[in-house]
Amino acid sequence: MIYENLTSKNVDKYIQYLKKALSIEPDLMVAECVDELGIIERLNDPFYQNTPSILAIDEGKVVGRIEYHFYGCLQDGHRMAYVDWVYVLPEYRHNGIAQQLFKEFENECIKHNIDQYYLIRATNPDADNFYHSFEDVHLDDEPMLRKMFGER
Description:
By secondary structure, the chain is an alpha+beta fold. 30% of the residues lie in helices and 23% in strands. It has 4 helices and 5 strands. Strands 1-2-3-4-5 form a 5-stranded mixed β-sheet. β2 (53-58) and β3 (61-72) form a beta hairpin. The chain is globular and about 40 Å long. The chain starts with a strand and ends in a 20-residue tail after the last helix.
């Protein structure tokens, strides 16, 4: 298993992974289809340059990923990270891949002097077991406000 950042060199493998994930667990995906051209364009869009993905690659195929972004608060200088997405294909789960994706991500946090990270976690039994295995974390249920602009 190797772990590497998503780039234009491995985007085709990433797209194949997304198609497989969508076909296997469409109810867990946030999109109804894989926008191949849009993904390729976003890799070069300056807006998305601060939203990296780390891919887990097994025998040349992407089997998992973690996507995140860094941001900060000007008022107090607090440096934060938000995990946008974590997903491992079902046949690869329970093999330490998601844990290693988080370790790779945490190394990036340390490298960039991040004070804390957070995510909105799934609450299904597998996800609960996974997140409860983390050390030195707080698992909170927090209210959230969300507003969408336009149709997506």
